[in-house]
Design goal:
25 helices; elongated; four-stranded mixed β-sheet; alpha/beta; 3 domains
Length: 546
């Protein structure tokens, strides 16, 4: 039966390679390692705002093909943290290829990792990221009670009346024992899983191909072995409860109460683990790194096309050939070359502007975190990613849409003056205010953002803004075809600014009253004259940020 189950498990692993997971995701626990990790050495940590703009959670769910809860947590942190050195991922391409091309080797590793797929494995991070329980000041009494109980039991051989002392102490110990149960409960998940993690890591480390991830791992596992026997007690506790071995559990419980085994062992183990946080995290990262590399191999295998990115030293330079958004089914692929100038996109709603901006952002992130891009070719410099795409009112903090947008873009302006290259992604800049001020402020800000070594991808409905920025930005557009009764989008990037206006025409084909259409056309002509005057004023006295 065991061999049959093992064979079925291996077949399942082979079949699932390259496919999306069908299981549910506990995002709160998956994110917990990232939220508490020290990222002081990272090149950039993606903000919650940028993650929301780029549909990061959906991207993570698409990429995640890990086999363990450890792998899920490590992958999430990897995807949100742009490392200081690109070789943190690029240095393991040979191993990723080995996972992709050698199914037996991969499945053997996956089978080991799957041992850490119980939900309780999420809590291992608490052992090196959170404060451990400290014994109360009166804890010396626990040791005294345990010693008294043992001494009275031994001396009972010579003086049977000491049984009354033993029973009296037992009653007191019972209160201490059950007081400690709530403390024990906090660690009944993490401590047994830590033992399992250590065992899995040792097994994986036997493979020479995996040793390159951390050649010094054995130092950490040897140090952790110093408390292995003490931790094994908590593994026994879980096993006995889960197997419902009531009789043995009852005998063990009496023994634990009599000598206060649980509080003494628990606080003893926690004290020793306090000085072993670094070793626990090292083992955690070793296992998580392996699972992440398998996940990269798996999701690449399931893609129609992908490429290894080129991280260029040339600033303000980006090449995307046949790039696509991985979360859009049958996504239209587009190509663009950026060299010196930033990019301004025009086009109507739903034509593809925002999706294209997200495509660039997602590919930039996965290039620097997973060494993978959704394109035939993707080349970019090492840069930080900021966005202002999905903005809404912050009613809890009494912030209007416009004020929230101003704060978001102000962060970009502040970062634009640094020596580090940035990628700024904006959708409809300052759309929370009136036309004249939107165009004026938008022009000034966009001129400032594209200076230094920064790249900007921005979309706008304002054709006037495109005219004002044509010397600093390359102009592209998305358009739709409107016939007698339909509107068709081809989602294809085209050179130049949008020349055709179809908004009023779309009202017309949807049978709006002729009086409305006529008035709209007349007003549009009048506003065009106003926009031309604004452009003339700008030429006479250019705006800017000082």
């Amino acid at each position: 039966m065991t061999n049959f189950r093992t064979k079925k498990a291996r077949e399942k692993l082979l079949h699932s390679f390259g496919k999306l997971k069908s299981e549910s995701f506990d995002m709160e626990q998956i994110e917990s390692y990232f939220r508490k990790k020290d990222h002081s050495g990272a090149f950039q940590v993606l903000s919650d705002k940028t993650c929301n703009d780029l549909d990061f959670q959906e991207l993570y769910l698409f990429v995640d093909r890990t086999n363990s809860k450890i792998g899920q947590q490590f992958l999430y942190n990897r995807l949100r943290t742009i490392p200081s050195h690109s070789n943190e991922i690029t240095g393991f391409e040979t191993l990723i290829e080995k996972f992709a091309n050698e199914p037996d080797f991969r499945v053997n590793i996956q089978s080991e990792l799957a041992r850490l797929n119980d939900r309780e494995a999420f809590y291992i991070t608490s052992l090196f990221q959170e404060e451990h329980l400290k014994p109360p000041k009166w804890f010396f009494i626990v040791r005294l009670l345990a010693f008294t109980s043992l001494l009275s039991l031994v001396m009972m051989i010579f003086n049977p009346s000491l049984i009354f002392i033993f029973l009296g102490v037992f009653v007191i110990n019972m209160g201490v024992h059950y007081w400690n149960k709530k403390n024990l409960f906090e660690y009944l998940a993490s401590l047994p899983q830590l033992l399992k993690l250590s065992k899995v890591a040792k097994e994986l480390f036997k493979n020479d191909a995996l040793k390159e991830i951390n050649p010094n791992l054995q130092q950490s596992t040897d140090i952790l072995d110093q408390v292995r026997n003490r931790m094994s007690f908590f593994n026994l506790e879980v096993k006995l409860q889960s197997d419902m071995q009531v009789f043995f559990w009852g005998v063990l419980e009496i023994f634990k109460i009599a000598f206060l085994i649980e509080p003494l062992l628990l606080f003893g183990v926690l004290k020793r683990l306090e000085n072993k946080r670094k070793e626990i995290e090292t083992i955690f990262e070793f296992v998580g790194h392996i699972d992440t590399l398998i996940s990269i191999a798996s999701f690449r295998h399931g893609l129609e096309k992908y490429c290894i990115p080129e991280i260029s030293k040339k600033q303000k330079h980006l090449i995307a050939e046949e790039a696509y958004h991985p979360l859009i089914p049958e996504c239209v692929k587009n190509s663009i070359t950026v060299d010196g100038k930033s990019i301004l996109l025009t086009g109507s709603n739903m034509s593809g502007k925002t999706s294209f901006i997200r495509t660039i952002g997602i590919n930039a992130i996965t290039a620097m975190t997973l060494n993978t891009c959704f394109a035939d070719r993707f080349s970019l410099p090492r840069l930080k990613v900021f966005s202002a795409i999905r903005i809404s009112d912050d009613l809890m903090n009494d912030k209007s849409y416009y004020f929230e947008e101003v704060l978001t873009i102000k962060e970009m302006v502040d970062n634009s003056f640094s020596s580090i290259s940035n990628l700024f992604l904006l959708d409809e800049i300052f759309k929370g205010t009136n036309t004249v001020e939107r165009i004026s402020a938008g022009k000034a800000v966009l001129s400032a953002l594209t200076k230094e070594n920064n790249l900007v991808f921005v979309s706008t409905h304002d054709i006037e803004l495109a005219d004002l920025l044509k010397d600093e930005y390359e102009l592209y557009h998305f358009s739709e075809k409107v016939d007698h009764k339909t509107v068709a989008f081809d989602y294809t990037l085209k050179d130049g600014k949008l020349k055709n206006r179809n908004a009023i025409r779309i009202l017309q084909i949807n049978d709006y009253p002729e009086s409305i259409i006529a008035e709209a056309i007349a007003l549009a002509k009048q506003l065009d004259k106003t926009a031309m005057n604004l452009q003339s004023e700008h030429v006479a006295e250019p705006a800017g940020i000082r």
